[in-house]
Each structure stands twice: as structure tokens, then as C-alpha cells.
Amino acid sequence: MIEQLAGLFRGNPVFTFFVILGLGYLLGKLRVGPLSPGPVAGALFAGLLFGHFGFSMTPAVQAVGFALFIFSVGYQAGPRFFDVLRTDGLRYLLLAATVAVAGILTAVTVAGFLKFEPGTGAGVLAGGLTSSPTLAAAQDAVRGGRVALPEGWSAEQVVGIVATGYAITYIFGLAGLIMIIKLLPGLLGIDLAAEAARLEADQDDGRRFGEVGYRAYAVTNPGIPAMPIEELRARWDGFSWVRVRRGDEIHKARDLESLEMGDVVMAMGGVGFLTYLQVLGDDVTDQYLAKEPVETAQVVVTHRNAIGKTLRELAIPWQYGVYVEKMRRMNYAVPRTVDARLLSGDVLTVVGPTGNIDALGEHVGFVERDRPETDLVTFALGIAAGALVGTFSISIAGASIGLGSAGGLLVAGIVVGFLRSVRPTFGRLPEPARWLLMELGLLIFMMGVGLRAGADIVDTFQRAGPKLILGGICVTVVPVLAGYLVGRRLLKFNPALLFGAITGAMTSGASLAIVTRSAGSDVPALGYTGTYAFANVLLTIAGGLMIAFG
Predict the structure, then answer these.
(1) Helix/strand/coil for 209
(2) What is 207-368's CATH number, 3.30.2010.30, 3.10.129.10, 3.30.590.10, 3.30.70.1450?
(3) In a 3-state reduction of DSSP, which class is residue 211?
């Protein structure tokens, strides 16, 4: 039976490929206490299992996965990468650089002190930081011949060592980082929830959007008509004044200078804020105001005149008669306060009349409704361009210097993503499509890593397991501590924002989830998105540098 099953796997590579993929996803969903390894770790573990029993992956298949993943990372980071420099980007860049440099220096020190084999230090760096771009860049540098290998070592041997070092140290890098991020605030006497609340209060005076609701009020207060609508709006800006019925006529609220007795006002906004409008008069039901269709849509911020502005400055509820229900940045929820500052690529989920949403889209970017079209031409040619750029190099002092495939694909993705943010008709890649391509590419790449490392992992662990684990612990812990010290003492980050930024600098979405849960707020996500774009570039560069030293 076992022999027949083994024959089935060995004789049907397509079957085997998708079994490993499915098993990886299944393993990724398992929970150990509050921790779940996630699909990436699951794909790695499944690959290790099958690799241990002699299964392998065609290098071309892994290369395709690698290209899809790295390009998609750049595409996602493109809008944020350039615009972050216009706001608080220097601080985030310095923090991301601190974490990357601390990781490299720690890995180099550990590799020298523990006398690692060639390529092991690069694997430990990538595993300790759980950074797939670092791993990909290190292996690419070896395969591309951009580093001189010690005598007697082949490129394939070093690539295997990098993969094995990564696989062994990845476990603590994943679980250990989550543990550190969870425990460190308490050890330092930091209340993340209180710090997040303090930052939110400083930013918006406590005025926040809430769950959306609708109310109509008949104006019966004699004092209201004497006040300009602009003054009324300034008093209560937590909702949208959508329409006003005056007799048999329906008006947009922003087209009127003042209200009159007997007017019926339709407002939309946070349920808690809508109660303030009872000062107008009685809460009523008005069938005429409810006739205009209302929808929920996503508006993507791309226009220069909106980037860097707050929701209050844009007067979105008042000027456009729509309500901001959610706000996401790089696919992470961020606080949607009235003083939240917009950046390129931000996605606003808004509720309101269709015409009002379209008007808002024309002003700040474009409306992203449920459209399935994907610009595969731009996506494919972008990957091709990145791969081509990666082949170019220059010789300096006998060393070949170039971006390599990883760097070329990352740069191409950043450029295409940025152009997409300023030209909405260019390079359309809906979020579900981008997520699928990025996730599938990463899982294929990680399966290949696991299959390659699985053949040697038992022998390597028996020979050097304790040293690798020790090295991985150092590479995980030291950058976190360095990032905290620099972030608090030099860069003066709010602690809730800082811990989110540290997880972004280490590209760990799982750790961000821990921080946001501890803070009871989306504030840490602002820090995460601030460093993430820079971190992907810096950690990709780190992989190529580390392979030359470790």
C-alpha cells in the first residue's frame, strides 16, 4: 500500500504539487494555544516533510513562484513607498534601516563566532526575521554568480545550506517574535491600550466615525433657521448631511445656505453622533428622502490634491454627502478618525448615494467597484522587465554588482504599483487578484525551499542544530530591541505606533495582529504600513549583502 502511494506521488507531479499545497494550507490553520503558523509556514513544513522523503520541485516552477511573489510585494508597496516620504517618512525609513542593519550585524557576528558554513548566516538572517524576500535575494545572488564562493563549494550546495538554515531558524523567528512583541510592553511597563487611546485623543479630540446609520429630522427648533448651515456643519462634523426636503423639492444639503422651519434633513453617519441632531427637532420617517439609491463602494486615493489631507480638511461627509465606514492602508485597517491623513493607495469604504460617491471618486482618486478585469499584460510585462533589469550588473574591483532577479522584480513592482496609483487606468490589479498571485507565488516558492531543505534538514540539525537555533534567537531578538531603543529615544515614537512599526520593519503581519489586539486599536497598523514598504526593499538588499559575508 505504501509503495503504491509513493508510486502515485512520484509518477504524478501535478498531483503531488497540489497535495503539498493543500497540506501546507491545512497545517497553516492548526492552532497551538493562541498561535497559528499561517499558510506560509504550513507550505514550508509540508515541503520539508516531502523533501525529507526525496521529493523535489523543478527549479523553473519555484522561479515562477518567486517572480510572482517579489513583483507583487513591490506592486503593493509602490504607492506607499514614495508618498510616505512626504509625511513622516524619514522616521519610518530610519527605523526600518535600524532593524535591517541590526539584523545584518547580528547575523554576521553570529556566523563568525559560531563558525557557520558558507551561506548559513544568510539563512539564519532570513529565518530569524521570517523574511522571505531576504531568503529569495540570498539564493538569487548565489545562483546568479554575484558572490564568490569558497573553494570546494558549489552554488547548489550553498543554496541548499541557505534553505536549511532558514527552515531551522524560521520556527523561533515566527513564534519567538510573536512572544517578544507580546511580552516586551509589559516588561517595559507600557500600557499599549492607554498609549493608543492617548494618540487617538491627541489626533482627533475624541471624534471618531462609528457604525453607520440613517436618520431624518424635521426642523422644529426656532433657533436653527437663524444659523447658516456652514456653522451647523462646523458644530457637528461626525456625520454627513445628505439631503434636505423643502416642501416637495429635494435639495443637496451643501447647496443650501440655511435651513427653514419645516425642512426635513436626511443625515447619515455614526449612530452615536446622529443623536446630536435631535437639536434640530423630531426624528421622522420620510419616504421622499429615502428614494435615492444608497450603496457601499471603495474609493482609492490617488489624486495629488487629496494626498496628505485629512478627512476633516477634505470635508468628505459635508462636501460629498457620503460617510466613511472603513479606511485601509496596504490591506490593513487603520483608524478612520476625522483627522486621519490620507496617503496614496489608501482605500476608503464609503456609504452614500451613488452620484455622491462618484463625485468623491473624481476628486480624490477613483471608485473601485466590483470589477473583475485584470491588466495581465502590464503585470506580465512588468515581471519580464524586472527579470531583465536583474540580469544587468557592473564589475567593481573584480566584484559583480547588480540588482539581481529579486531586486529587479521588486523595483519593477514598485514602479508599476506607483504608476497605477497616479493613473487609475494603468495596470489594474483588483485586490483579490493581487492577493491570489502574491500568496500563490509565495507558497510555491516556500514549497520549493522546504523540498530543497528537507533532504538535508535532519543531518544538518544533528550536526549544527543548537548553533543555528542560538543564532536565530539572536537575529530575532536584537533587531527588536535596537528598533525599540532607537524608536523611543531618538525618533520619539508613541509606543503603540512604535511596536506596530517594528513588526512592519520585520514584515510580520502575525505580530501586528498581536499588537493591535493588545492595544485594542488600529493605531499600530499606521506604524506597520509606515515601515513595511521600506523594509521589503532593505531586507531584499540585506539578503544579497549577507550571502557575501555569511
Answers:
(1) coil
(2) 3.30.70.1450
(3) coil
